[in-house]
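Assess this one:

_____
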Amino acid sequence: GVKFIASGLTLNRNSGEGPDFDLKLSSGLHFYVEATAVEAGSNEDRVPPPPQVANNEDAPYPPSELFLRITGAIKNKSEQRKGQIKHGTLDSNRPYILAINVGDIPFIFVDENPPTLSHVCLGFGGVAYSGSSTLISPSPFIYRKKYPNDPISTRIFYDPEYKWISGIFLSDVNPFYLPQRNHIQFLHNPNA
């Protein structure tokens, strides 16, 4: 919200049912903004700490468990939105932006290359750290394994069920971490 206000945009907190905020552009266009935060978890599918890389071993990071957390947040907001439409507290034709914060998960930074959101929403391949170089996997992922055996889609923006999402902001900022660089990603949904 602070970035919107600092940019001169009008951001109003919604009261009662409905998305968290109403964002008004200078053109008069209104967006819904729904915010959520995800945590590392505590079960076998928790987000693990970064691997210790030694002897030029490849280690994928960020892990699939992070993508599971972000995807879960998107699915939860989708169900919440359906309820809001059913109760008449949301105009289904208004642009809708999700804002997801991963700042409570240790060692996760959103300035990865390729961006974390491109892994989750567009199915881009993973990054592997190898000694002093960074390698990008040449093949895209359509699904990543979910615990125990249920696959999770990493192509959310290709799924017609999610065409209502105009875009997603992802941030790793938290009250105890004041970054020196921009720690916010935005990914527009090409099918919105």
Confidence is low (pLDDT under 50) at residues 127-139. DSSP finds three helices and eleven strands in the chain. The radius of gyration is 17 Å. The first strand starts at residue 10 and ends at 13.
